[in-house]
Amino acid sequence: MSSTSIDPRMSGPRRAPRKGITLSWADPRLRAIVWQVVIVGLILGGIWFLAATTAANLAERRIATGFGFLESTARIPIGEFLIPYDPAVNTYGRAFAVGILNTLLVSVIGVILTTLLGTFVGIASLSGNWLLSRLCYAYVEVMRDIPLLLHLLFWYAILLTLPTVREAMVLIPGVFLSNSGLKVPLLVWEPAHSWAALAFAAGCIATYVAGRRATRIQNATGVRPRVWPLAVGALVVLPGLIWLALGAPFTLEMPVKGRFRFDGGGAITPEFMALMIGLVLYHSAFAAEIVRSGIQSVPSGQWEAGGALGLKRGTMLRQIVLPQALRVIIPPMTSTYLGVAKNSSLAVAIGYPDLVSIMNTTLNQTGQAIEGIAMIMAVYLTISLAISLFMNWYNAHIALVER
Amino acid sequence: MSTATTTHAEVARREQPPMLVAGPLAWARTNLFNSIGSSLVTLALAYFLLKFAASFIDWAFLKSVWTVPMDPATGKLDPEACRAAKGTGACWAVIWDKYRFILFGRYPFDEQWRGAVVIVLFLGLFVVSAMRRFWRKELALIWIATLAAIGMLQWGGVFGLRYVPQDEWGGLPITLILATFGLAFAFPIAILVALGRRSTQLPAVKLLCVIYVEVIRGVPLISLLFMASVMFPLFMPAGMSPDKLLRAQVAIILFAAVYLAEVIRGGLQALPKGQYEAADALGLSYWRKTFLIILPQALRLVIPPLVNTFIGFFKDTSLVLIIGIFDLLTSGKVAVTDPIWQAFSTEVYIMLGLIYFCFCFSMSRYSRGLEREFSKSVRR
After folding, report:
1. Which CATH code, of 3.40.50.300, 1.20.1730.10, 1.10.10.10, 1.10.3720.10, is assigned to A92-188+251-398?
2. Which of A28, A63, A140, A291 sits most deeply, having the most CB atoms within 10 A of its CB?
3. B204 vs A39: CB contact, 8 Å cut-off?
4. Where are the domains of chain A?
5. pTM score
6. A298-310 per-position pLDDT tens digit
7. Which residues contact B171 (CB under 8 A, 6 or more apart)?
8. CA distance A123 to chain B (A)
9. Residue A232, Ramachandran bin (φ over 0: left; ψ between -120 and 50: alpha; else beta)
10. Minimal Cα distance from B234: which residue of A?
């Protein structure tokens, strides 16, 4: 009789009756609010307690807070800098900037070399050649099972046992390796080089545009127009012609061996070299594992399908397997890159003037511990965030577009 | 006629066992000399490998110096033999002279047997925890008992053991203490943070957990250690300042908890929704649901990545060198500041590398074995 009236299909969507929060411990919403108030209150209370004791301690030790110290003269000697720096004139703020740039330099070069070496080892460990793949496994196991700090100390110790400047090894004429680092000839920069470099940059853009256009035409017609004549012209011939037209200047500033040090030429310090070797060897082992498991995650049917199409192994790897493997590789590779950037801070142990090392000296000299550490953390958080954002963008860019 | 005989001869030849199908030659052909390129790679690698191995054996074993004589006048070791061999042979005499310092740091010489017992206890704890037979609730009791025994041995002051203050501890026990206590304390925090980050009922708690995780993951461990060594004394009321090791330990726990929490969160996410719903349908409360249904399954899922995280921490404890705590790496580094051994740091670093390698490699083999075993049961 009235069965139709309680048929749920007839009465539209039914919801639980909304009730106000009852003041009873049995109401989960009330419990949730109480718990949150208690936990947040405890944490805020803890922070307030720490802040209060810190303020009291600072007042007692007569340490002025604030970032005023950045304006005063630094007097920190820094061996390597990308922007002009003079400890007698420049401020702590400038030293801070030098540190950030050094950290960025190490991170960028480290990330690039780690990617190259890691990809190479990762692919080689899947090689059909037994000796090569075993060697790659051994490399990965040894490199990643030794702490990075030990890597750095070890390579730094090795570099310092190289011959002295007077007996420096000559790798190729003009390139010296000694315990004060690697010395290389430096090109004397002239306007002609700037123009040629400009032409080369323009050539890169032109080649990229032409490549995009070729892909579009290939997608539409199936025939890919030739790009390489334009690429050679824009990348090699045109910059070369400009350089020749401007008189083809080419003088190298050779390092000259003195008694205790070299004069002239470009230099790579042992600290920088040890940091790079350590960082890249350590992290490339992780990168290699990521690349290897990424490639292995591609079903073997993809290889077989490529083989059935008559593609060569290298072409299959580049055109079929790697693009699919990248989707698996990118997320963990992002953490490896973050690791490179963060672990570059270990430079402080071997005396490379990165951000942490410079700020450590700064806070020892000025006593501004809180500000110094806050600045270190802020910079690294920014770098981490930037790498994450970029890699997320790239990941979305290469993600599988499903029809 | 003649064609028939040749055919017979050919057939007979073909019936001979194929040389290059089975046996070591065939193996070498498919795995080492598959193509011209592969053969070239094999030959080049073999050449460099043999050359490297020969020179390494020469350096490390044939031309190396194992002991150096003691100078009777001063009672000091005379490293002249090592200096002579420098560049051609290793000087293992430095290890012979310094191994107790490297392993136990500045711990009083007569009491160093206690450090050795601590190392053995730690190894036993790891082995027991690694056996699946012991994956029960009693394992927590074993951990508590062992860690208490370790603390007692290191400090002393009871059962007639001499009291050793914390700033005299050093070497491998410190590394093991930092890593193991760090894990033991970080683990419960990590579980709470992982649960908090997945909470739907408590948005404020979730926000706190997200901020905590993302901030700590974004900064290097070094900055946290600096914070512990430089800033922490400012946080504490006057007269209350925990010693340096404890402060570093707190920093490592805070750091480890974040990475463990992310691993555990992965396990929580991988668990099918039906498990949560089934627990709800049984009318279990949140904590009973979590501890009886969810966590036992989620943690089991993530044991291999947990072991990998633990390997990471074991290596990361070496960073305390930078704030001057006497762990294994620091004592090795300090050992070679001795004027007579200054030029022989490579040998000491190789020994340290071997110790770290043994620990990390065995853990990583273990994690791989577990992974294989788990995937076996899933496949079935």
Report:
1. 1.10.3720.10
2. A291
3. yes
4. 92-188+251-398
5. 0.84
6. 888 998 999 999 9
7. B101, B102, B103, B104, B105, B107, B115, B326, B327, B328, B331
8. 14
9. alpha
10. A54
Give mean pLDDT, residues A175-202. Answer: 83
Name the least confident of A14-23, B105-114, B212-221, B340-349: A14-23
Please, which residues 208-227 of chain B have a Cβ atom closer than 8 Å to chain A? 208, 215, 217-223, 226-227
A131 and B46 in contact by Cβ < 8 A? yes
Nearest chain B Cα distance for residue A275, angstroms: 15
Instruction: Categorise residue B2: left if φ over 0, alpha if ψ from -120 to 50, beta otherwise.
Output: alpha
The verdict on B238 touching A (C-beta cutoff 8 Å) is yes
Of A56, A146, A345, the CB nearest to B357: A146
Which B positions 28-57 lie with beta carbon below 8 A of chain A?
Answer: 30-32, 34, 38, 41-42, 45-46, 49
Task: Enter the tokens of residue B90.
Answer: 């290793």
Contact B223 A43 (CB under 8 A): no
Put simply, the answer to whether B222 touches A135 (Cβ < 8 Å) is no
Beta strands in A34-114 (DSSP E): none
Rounded to whole angstroms, how far apart are CA atoms A379 and A100?
A: 8
Residues in chain B: 380
pLDDT tens profile A225-267: 888 888 888 888 888 888 888 877 777 777 777 766 777 677 8
Q: What is the pLDDT of residues A73-127, one digit of tens each?
A: 777 777 777 777 777 777 888 888 888 999 999 999 999 999 999 999 998 998 8
Instruction: Determine, for residues A356 and B222 on separate chains, whether the beta-carbon distance falls below 8 Å.
Output: yes
pLDDT tier at B238 (50, 70, 90 boundaries)? low
pLDDT value at position B380?
A: 45
Exposed, middle or buried by CB within 10 Å (0-12, 13-18, 19+), for A269?
middle
Q: Confidence class of residue A10 from pLDDT cuts 50, 70 and 90?
A: low
Q: Which positions in chain B touch A369 (Cβ < 8 Å)?
A: 230-231, 234
Distance (Å) from the alpha carbon of A286 to chain B's nearest alpha carbon? 12
| ipTM (interface predicted TM) | 0.85
Integer Cα distance of B206 and B288 in angstroms: 20
Test B202 with A32 for CB contact under 8 angstroms: yes
Is the Cβ of B235 closer than 8 Å to some Cβ of chain A?
yes
